[in-house]
Amino acid sequence: MVAHPLAPPNARAARSTGGGRDEVILAGAPPREPPSDRLAAISRGEVIPAEVHPELATEEHVLRVQNLKLWYGEKQALFDVNLDVPKGQVTAMIGPSGCGKSTLLRCVNRMNDLLDIVRIEGDMTLNGDSIYARDVDVIELRKRMGMVFQKPNPFPMSIYENVVYPLRIDGERDRRVLDEVCERSLRGAALWDEVKDRLQESALGMSGGQQQRLCIARAIAAEPEVLLLDEPCSALDPIATGKVEDLIQRLKGEYSVLIVTHNMQQASRISEYTAFMYLGRLMEYGPTEAIFTNPKLDETNSYVTGRFG
Amino acid sequence: MRGGPARSVVAGGEPAVWLSGAALAICLAMIGGLLALILWNGIGTFWPGELVRVTLRDGSAVLGEEYGTETYELRRASVPLLPAEARPVALAAFPEGEDAIEAVRVLLRTDNRRESGSTFTYVDAFEVQPGSKTTPSWAVVLERSDQGRFLGEPVRLVTPEQTYEGPEAAWEAFQKLRPAALERNERREELEEESGAGGVLIREAELRVRSAEMRTGVDGRDLARALSESALSASERTRLEAELAEKPADLREAIEEYVLLERRNDIQDAPRLAAMSELSAENAAEYLVMRTASGQEVEVETAEVVRGYRANALSWWGRLGVYLSRWWEFLSEEPRQAGTAGGVWPAIWGTVTMTLVMTVFVVPFGVLAALYLREYAKQGVIVSAVRVAVNNLAGVPSIVFGVFGLGFFCYLIGGGVDQLFYAERLPDPTFGKGGLLWASLTLALLTLPVVIVATEEALSAVPNSMREGSYACGASKWQTIRRIVLPRALPGILTGMILAVARGAGEVAPLMLVGAVNTAPALPVDLEAPFVHPSRSFMHLGFHIYDLGFQAPDGDAARPMVYTTMLLLIALVATLNLAAMWLRARLRRRFTSASF
After folding, report:
1. Least buried of B55, B142, B144, B382, by fewest C-beta within 10 Å?
2. How far away is chain B from the Cα of A214, in angstroms, using its nearest Cα?
3. What are B148-175's pLDDT values in tens digits?
4. B349-540: which CATH architecture?
5. CA gap A251, A87 in Å, rounded
6. What is A53-153+226-304's CATH superfamily?
7. Which residue of A has its CA nearest to B468?
8. % helix, strand, coil for chain A, step of 5
9. B176-209 residue pLDDT tens
10. Which chain B residue has the Cα nearest residue A227?
């Protein structure tokens, strides 16, 4: 199961003396265990608490994930994930393919409900309100969040209608309100100047980067409490990526952003906090700078320095 | 091992290219051939050709339009079957020792079916006196309203006042008198219509009496009829009126209304009938005397001629005029003489109406069914089974749908509707027989699988990312379907509609059972309230083709019309398809996707 060679054993042993992480080892395990034992524990299916940096405790949290477990049919994809997303900041989730970061993101607005085979235990709270409680109205819940997907998915309608879609489905008809929201959202997504003269044209005629920023405009049209970005730049060229990254920087403060990315430079450029996930577990979570320059776990270090993943 | 010549041919894929190319070429040739045949025969039908006159060896003459020449094998043994005068000529044509020769015969459209009994005549080359073929300048074609075409030469024209002798004078007078004759015809038709309308009113009043009878349980129709007799003795009248006074109020009112209408109609009908018989007499008194090629003299009333022209004296433009006027008649008039002449307007209208009503039924049902299958139903064994069943439904022979439609729609549902709402008309069925509604529903059932399959394909082609995007905005499932999925799938759904229209418009077999007739008294949709008459039978181009080609009493004369009607049906289906394609193209343009 854990056949991934992280690093040569001697290198791991050498780094394991790095100190300061006795507290993360499982209770009852002998101190100063080499990290290979952490992976061995994972492979035995044991619960591994994440390495969470103390800076996070000082933040106000918009979203809290509590002991989330998720199964695709028989196969478990998330194991006891606990993650608190700070308010008004950009939080990045990194990790190798298949580590469950997109799955976790899609759990936040319950997109996984659309799949019959998914089973979930544990809970999340959005500003204190449970997401997975029995009596939650999923549709109302989703209206409190915005989500942007890997590939731009504008709807087959005009640019204007795309942006005001969240209001339209709420039955908003007042032209003034719609116009105002459209302009505010497009300005927010740094797209207004490019499209203000062709709002009534089909959104499908825009370039890929414009389409993705349109999707962001759509996601922020309803003033979401948290913005979920699932690898928003993976289908874009570098210039479009740069524009979207600038945009995310601008959204910071006003919106709480949770972004999944494969691109570690991107995570380090745009996020305040970074969570490293591996094999369905949250491994380490802390300020981006600390994760990239001085991680507490060897696995994190190996990943961010490109030695695997 | 490698590089052998045989091997390299196979490896290069050349045979596959040739094979597939040849298959395509054969397909195209067959389709092209079919279309060319129909076009050639269909377009030529109405062109007025020259009339030729040939004298035969027995002294008789034949006048007709040449339809073609064919060669056949003549055996010595069958020479005695030729006319007596042609036999020596034919025998002389056999070389020594030969038992069979190629002989030639000409097919002439001689018309004059009433006079001679046939529309076409074969003239054997051996029969013809050499050099006797002429194109007489006074050969005239008269299209009669109910007797078929007449070919011959005018002799004189007789009116009550005057007789015009000689072809020239007669023809000139004929041209001059025709407008008045046509006016008389129109006037006559109007009178007939009026009296028909009166009849309808009386029939309706009678139905009201019948339904009042059914409500009250008291008989009244016999009384109503007796009361409306015009020759009633005073005592009889008093007795009947006393009887009427005893009837329940409902029934009494209905009877009184009926009697009133009958009397009014009697009063109005008398002058109508007089006027009609006067017009008939006028028509009968004004006639052309024509001479056939065989010398027989025939009287043709001017009023009975729909179209008349001098076939050999027409210029090219004159011919074009006749050709176009025949096309216009074909497209806008009702059929005459069991469809061999006149037009097919009721059939065009019936086909279009039936197809549209079918589309109105089949598209919403098919789309909703496909929506449930694709968007709501949990994909599994049952849904797969349903899908297989729907696909198989597309392969069921159409006549099976016809039988089902007749049993289920016409007899079961239609019979029930009659019992409930039209009981006074029984035993005459109203909905309990074939009609527009049942035919459309039957064809809707027939084309349902096409729509369902196409819609399902279109729905599954909508990327899931769009659905997810919509859900992420907080849209419900229905909002997502209505605002995102359906608009995006619309071009595909329209493709399904096009296929359904194409299939439905051309289907004939089930219609024979559930509503298509060879002559419909009235159109299924007209200007008469309530405008749409779903219980009426209708004419259909496809059925008309079958009826003309294989059921008409004069099959030979009908053949050219069969081709023209086929051409029209193909053009109609193509037009319906093009309209739907245009619609789809417009929608596509709205949803064109930028590729990135």
Report:
1. B382
2. 12
3. 888 998 888 888 888 888 888 888 888 8
4. Orthogonal Bundle (1.10)
5. 12
6. P-loop containing nucleotide triphosphate hydrolases (3.40.50.300)
7. A111
8. 40, 25, 40
9. 888 888 888 888 888 888 888 878 888 888 888 8
10. B472
